[in-house]
Amino acid sequence: MRAKITYAVTAAVLVVYFVLVGSRGVLLIQHGTALTVTFGVAVLILPFIGIWFLWKNTQFVQRANRLAAELEAEGGLPVDELKRTPAGRIDRDSADEVFARRKAETEDAPDDWRCWFRLAVAYHDARDTPRARKAMQRAIALHAGRPVNV
After folding, report:
1. Among residues 97, 94, 92, 142, which one has the least CA distance to residue 116?
2. Cα-based distances in Å from 92 to 64, 96, 124
3. Which of 107, 108, 137, 145 is the most buried (most CB within 10 A)?
4. 3-state secondary structure of 26
């Protein structure tokens, strides 16, 4: 729940920032000189890129949450079997051991989105966020029946 609240607050702050930056871009364009119009257009492009990025990430999170809810309803969510340090951090060797099992499971059933979901969680636990995101994107694509890029 904390992650959802953090995401919502961050998204709201970004939207306010985009509005402020956009208004400055409009003011620059209204000034009317060649230089300010050029800068104004450049400044207006940044909020559009930011909004697009925020939208794509929000879609990704919503789709991943839907998969998690479906997997939970099936009783297929990965069990947290990781050892932790006294400070609460995940033990690296434990994460690597679980990752090896999840990878083997995914290699045995490469077209099963459930395996890719669990592999994404294992990548995340092993602190490999880029690969976790790619694995989750693959799980989402497989679930939706879309072609998957190899």
Report:
1. 142
2. 25, 6, 12
3. 137
4. helix
